[in-house]
Design brief:
By secondary structure, the chain is an alpha+beta fold. The protein is 20% helix and 37% strand.
C-alpha cells in the first residue's frame, strides 16, 4: 500500500506540473499581440497662399461672352481648355475665332459688377483686327443711311453773307469729352513694387495717372513711356492695402 501511495503521489505531482505548464502557455498566448504599426502621418495640406497662374489663351473660339462696365469678358477655348480674358468693350460673337493682344494675367480677380471671382483672368489690350472690323461696320452703316441735309444755319455759315446781313446766332459748342485721357508718357513722381507689379505715378502738364506694369526697375524723376493698356476703375490692391480710383494695367514700358 505504501508503494502504491508513492506512485499515486508522483502521478499527482506530474499532473499538477503539466497543468501548471499548460496554464502558463495559455496565459502567454493570450498576451501576445500583433506588432504595433507605425502611425501614419497625415499629409500636409497644400499651401493656399498662392493660386497657380494658368497660361492665358490668346487665340481660340469664343464659347462665352458678357459685357460689364467698360469691359467685355470672353471665355476662349483651345485644345479642350478654356480660359477667361477681359478686353475693353468690344463686339464679339459666340462661336467666332479671335486673337487677343497680349496683356497682364491676374489671379483671384473679383468683379463687383458681375458679382463673380475669377481664379485666373487675362486683361488684354483688345481683340486683333477689332478696330478695322468696327470701322468697316461703321462705313457700311453710313453708306446705307440716308443722306442728312445740313441745317439752314450751317448752310448760311458756309456761304458768303451779303453786306449788312445781321449776324447769325452762334452754334452751341460740342460737349467736352467726359474724363481726361490717361497719361502714358511723363515723369515718374512715385513708384513702388508689390505683388509682382510695379506701380507708377506719371505726371505730364499737371495731370497725374497711376499705372501698373510687370515688375521693372523704375526711378523716380525719370521720364517714362508705357504701353497702352486697360483702365480699371476703383481698383483695390491687397498687397499695397490701397485703392486707386483709376489705374492703367499696361503690358510694360514702351521700347
Amino acid at each position: 500500500m505504501k508503494r502504491n501511495a508513492n506512485f499515486l503521489a508522483a502521478g499527482l505531482t506530474v499532473a499538477v506540473a503539466v497543468a501548471t505548464v499548460s496554464g502558463c502557455a495559455g496565459t502567454g498566448t493570450a498576451r501576445m499581440s500583433e506588432p504595433a504599426r507605425p502611425a501614419v502621418q497625415p499629409k500636409a495640406p497644400a499651401s493656399a497662399s498662392q493660386t497657380k497662374i494658368e497660361p492665358p489663351i490668346l487665340a481660340g473660339k469664343v464659347v462665352e461672352t458678357m459685357n460689364a462696365g467698360s469691359y467685355t469678358y470672353i471665355s476662349l477655348e483651345k485644345d479642350g481648355r478654356r480660359a477667361w480674358s477681359a478686353v475693353p468693350n468690344t463686339e464679339v460673337t459666340v462661336g467666332e475665332d479671335i486673337i487677343l493682344i497680349p496683356g497682364i494675367d491676374m489671379v483671384d480677380f473679383k468683379s463687383t459688377i458681375l458679382k463673380r471671382t475669377f481664379d485666373n483672368i487675362h486683361f488684354s489690350a483688345g481683340v486683333q483686327g477689332a478696330a478695322a472690323k468696327a470701322a468697316e461696320k461703321a462705313a457700311a452703316a453710313k453708306a446705307a443711311a440716308p443722306a442728312v441735309q445740313p441745317s439752314a444755319p450751317a448752310l448760311a455759315a458756309d456761304a458768303k453773307l451779303p453786306p449788312n446781313h445781321p449776324a447769325l446766332p452762334k452754334q452751341d459748342a460740342a460737349p467736352a469729352t467726359q474724363g481726361a485721357q490717361p497719361v502714358l508718357s511723363g515723369k515718374v513722381v512715385e513708384a513702388m513694387d508689390a505683388g509682382g507689379y510695379t506701380y507708377i505715378c506719371l505726371e505730364k502738364d499737371g495731370q497725374k495717372t497711376w499705372a501698373a506694369i510687370p515688375e521693372a526697375e523704375v526711378k523716380v524723376g525719370s521720364d517714362l513711356t508705357i504701353q497702352a493698356g486697360n483702365i480699371m476703375p476703383f481698383f483695390a490692391s491687397k498687397s499695397l492695402k490701397r485703392s486707386f480710383e483709376n489705374i492703367i494695367f499696361s503690358p510694360g514700358i514702351a521700347k
